[in-house]
Amino acid sequence: MSSSVKRVDMPYDVTEITAETPLPFDDESRQLFKQASPLLAGLTDEELAKHIIAVRDEAYKASNPYPCIATFFFVHPAVSTLQHKWYRALRARLNDPQAKLLDFACCVGQDLRYLHQDGVKGHQIVGADLEPKYFELGQRLFADKELAIGREAKFVECDIFNARHRASVMSAGRPGNGGYDVIWIGFFIHLFPFEQHKEVLKYLLSFMSKAPGTCIAGRLAGTAEAQPILRVYPDKSGSWSIDVENASLFLHNEDSLKAVFEDVAPGEWRLEAQVAKRWPPALAMRDLPQMLNFIATRK
């Protein structure tokens, strides 16, 4: 391990890195839940917080103990933090009722539900994640299993490096493997070491429709100076017996992200990126101060 790579140890115990409550809710978060289901609409903020915490605790232990789950990132739809013009461009691509949206690494599905509440039909939506338990937890979190989003949206287990899984994601898109009109990826690309970023992006772009104007947008951890860090998780027993040499990840800035796009698909995409909000103070990675929003549009 290079001495120049920052090591960030992630606690397993959820109480070590998060407050006990997601309160107070901002208006956007409250609306996301209240509009999701009549069962949630009648809850007080305190009752809703208790419900969210119970599901959060299960989600945190379902797979890797991701800090974004521990610190209630899923309460705030990340897609809503895009620049207004970027969001409107993304949303406009989904006005066609035959258009398809893929929320890749969707977790409990907060972003796809935000878009559903903004008029995207359930049958247009596909969520994919490495951990399929998140799909059921999302339906419990938003109490919408029997509603349109629960009945019509598709959810697909996908390891991005598994060809069979990728084929399943592709077959859920437009008929005849026509791909997706919009892909949203929140908090995903930064999970991998730099050496894998081109491969990951190549697979993500392979899901896209070939039509000009299709777009892929997302939100990831970023820094002013692109850099690798070492993220180390203990196992569920609390042991640190992890192969730290293979635990590094890479944080982009605007220039480095654009360079990866250009390397993977030279001249095919117009990418815009912008530094967004800081990490919440409770997050263990609080000394990595930036997030990066981006949108790439096929030329």
TrEMBL record:
SUPFAM superfamilies: S-adenosyl-L-methionine-dependent methyltransferases. InterPro entries: Meroterpenoid_MTases, SAM-dependent_MTases_sf. Keywords: S-adenosyl-L-methionine, Transferase. Pathway: Secondary metabolite biosynthesis. It comes from the Eukaryota. Transmembrane segments: none annotated. GO terms for molecular function: transferase activity. Gene3D superfamilies: Vaccinia Virus protein VP39. Belongs to the class I-like SAM-binding methyltransferase superfamily. This is Methyltransferase domain-containing protein. It comes from Tilletiopsis washingtonensis.
